[in-house]
Write a structure and sequence with these properties.
By secondary structure, the chain is an alpha/beta fold. The protein is built from 15 helices and 13 strands. The chain binds pyridoxal-5'-phosphate.
Length: 438
């Protein structure tokens, strides 16, 4: 290794003495890929720097929120101004109203928004609402989709759970696990059969509109519309988890771009990531009829000391202000350029792979055939991915440290960044090819 990572190595040793695995979220520990995680101290635009001064082009983007790049001057200015007025009141403040109005303006079916601090909380609240609205218990999810780490949803989940190969987590009660039914993604027959057998027990179906926590797996045509229709006819709710895709795929997220013309809408949306611009903001949103079941209008309890925090919502507002049509056009182009540069490099080195995308979300599966579900995603050549990952990192390109994650472009990527990524990918592809032969 040519890169000096002494500082990161020291921090990681220290961290492991005081934080489980040294990390505040498991994928960061590099357990899937091996090696030492980098400790970052600064970001600007498309670049980030670690404690040893190594510079990287960032294709992780904090797993989605950094859509306009790091430390965007307009976001920094608004956050700084808000912070100077106080970090938190634990009382209503204007920024949360402005952010709710912006979300409602961008996504037609939404009439009410309740803010929380993480995607996990948003989904947990949506599940509670669905159960309260229907008086039923059963939740249906798809294998490989990740909806945060609440008990009901930690069954055959994607993201870090997939990276670490944990089918289910200890600590989730049998009762919770029994109330969650898991189906293979993109399998409409399985869904129809389940509704035929148990439709009247089902409180909600939850899905990512395009799963991006097992890598990016686009839905077959009409899949989300069919979920909506089946749920509706059985009196169940449809929760569209747009924590990843919301305001990333388009100005109004996945639904606004791909489903508006199909004539259906989910009962509840969940958001996170982009709506906080890197600060802890997430939300559950939907029609007034369902959302007003929440306390204090209704009796479904949900609360949070820092929910709707004025500094975090200022960051979200400033970020969304920058998320105009031009930005999404840029992101789509950049994603295409980066994806193709990687794919060309892998093809030239003879590495089997499948480039999959939906809008500007993409990932590369290290397998020959197109990935349609979690079982396909699990058939990847993990050693080849790991070799590719490390060669990219050591040459200054940070990609997700897992073969089961989406890659994220930001509006700050430059032409020079794309060229550099392509050059580094050639080196990394050779490393991946060598690992495939081992
Ligand atoms: C689709 C989806 N839902 C929920 C979550 C959980 O969000 P958080 O990590 O903010 O709790 C994530 C996180 O990656 C996600 O991608």
């Amino acid at each position: 290794m040519t890169q000096n990572i002494e500082g990161s190595t020291n921090w990681h040793q220290r961290a492991q003495q005081v934080i489980p695995g040294g990390v505040s979220s498991p994928v960061r520990a590099f357990k899937g890929v091996g090696g030492t995680p980098r400790y970052f101290v600064r970001g600007e635009g498309s670049r980030i720097w670690d404690v040893d001064g190594n510079e990287y082009i960032d294709l992780v983007g904090s797993w989605g929120p950094m859509i306009v790049g790091h430390a965007h001057p307009e976001v920094v200015a608004k956050v700084t101004a808000a912070a100077a007025l106080s970090a938190s009141f634990g009382a209503p403040s204007p920024n949360e109203v402005l952010l709710a109005e912006e979300i409602i303006y961008r996504v037609a079916p939404i009439e009410r928004v309740r803010f929380v601090s993480s995607g996990t909380e948003a989904v947990m609240t949506a599940i509670r609402l669905a159960r309260a609205a229907t008086g039923r218990n059963i939740i249906v999810k798809f294998a490989g989709c990740y909806h945060g780490h609440s008990d009901a949803l930690l069954v055959q989940a994607g993201s870090g759970v997939a990276t670490l190969g944990l089918p289910n987590s200890p600590g989730v009660t049998e009762g919770q696990a029994q109330d969650t039914l898991v189906l293979p993604y993109n399998d409409l027959d399985a869904l129809e059969n389940l509704f035929a057998a148990r439709g009247s027990d089902i409180a909600a179906v939850i899905t990512e509109p395009v799963p991006a926590n097992m890598g990016v797996v686009p839905p077959v045509a009409g899949f989300n519309a069919a979920i909506s229709q089946l749920a509706k006819s059985a009196g169940a709710l449809f929760i569209l988890d747009e924590v990843m895709t919301g305001f990333r795929i388009s100005r109004g997220g996945w639904w606004a771009k791909f489903a508006t013309h199909e004539g259906w809408a989910p009962d509840l949306f969940t958001y996170g990531k982009v709506i906080g611009g890197g600060y802890p903001v997430a939300a559950v949103a939907g029609s007034a009829a369902v959302m007003d079941l929440l306390a204090p209008v209704g009796s479904v309890y949900q609360a949070g000391t820092l929910s709707g925090n004025p500094v975090a919502t200022a960051a979200g507002l400033a970020t969304l202000e920058l998320c105009d049509e031009a930005l999404y056009e840029t992101l789509d182009n950049r994603a295409k350029q980066v994806g193709e540069a990687i794919s060309t490099a892998l093809s030239a080195a003879g590495v089997a792979h499948s480039l999959q995308s939906e809008g500007n979300l993409f990932s590369i599966f290290f397998t020959n055939s197109r990935v349609k579900n979690f079982a396909d995603a699990q058939s990847q050549n993990i050693p080849a991915f790991n070799a590719f990952f490390h060669a990219m990192l050591e040459n200054g390109v940070s990609i997700p440290p897992s073969a089961f994650e989406a890659w994220f472009v930001s509006g700050a990527l430059s032409d020079a960044d794309v060229v550099r990524i392509g050059e580094v990918a050639k080196i990394a592809a050779i490393a991946a090819a060598a690992a495939s032969e081992d």
